[in-house]
């Protein structure tokens, strides 16, 4: 795979990862009511996310309510919120920086070494964005697992399990880190050596003609 094709593939993968992370951040299905156990309750399904909690009835009606207070939320929810916001910001700047540095764009064509370095910087931003998404989703999943298996008087079918947003978040983190890694492969080692050689030989050639 050529350098330009590798950069394009990495950019598209990272862009898909950022969009998936955005979807995961706004979805309310970070955890959902469990249907395990003998007495299965299917009349109402409960879902909770970073920003709201929802109740879906068997008739198809869904009612959602935003979390009223920030300070009253549990620590893992606040931490996951912050990590997802940071991830989205890093990914947004990664999108802009990578477009400037990719070989398939015409911005900064006169300096290919600097252009490649900008592409690498965009790849680093995408990798950091994926790590933040991975940390947020894994932290939330760890808390859900802990609350599910700890000894409690709550019936097992009234506890919470992993929601679909967690799996979307894991996929988003994987795509962002994969795309960012491909962009980081654009480090201009050969181009830099070639440019240095050109600069060293050009003055001596000019003197010979003089």
TrEMBL record:
Keywords noted in UniProt: Cell junction, Cell membrane, Membrane, Tight junction, Transmembrane, Transmembrane helix
Primary localization: other
Subcellular locations according to the entry: Cell junction, Tight junction; Cell membrane
Segments passing through the bilayer: 82-102, 118-142, 162-189
PROSITE patterns, sorted: CLAUDIN
Gene Ontology CC: one annotated term: bicellular tight junction
Mode of membrane association: Multi-pass membrane protein
Keyword match Signal: no
Keyword hit for Membrane: yes
Gene Ontology molecular functions: structural molecule activity
Family per similarity comment: Belongs to the claudin family.
Biological role: Claudins function as major constituents of the tight junction complexes that regulate the permeability of epithelia.
Annotated protein name in UniProt: Claudin
Protein source organism: Acrocephalus arundinaceus (Great reed-warbler)
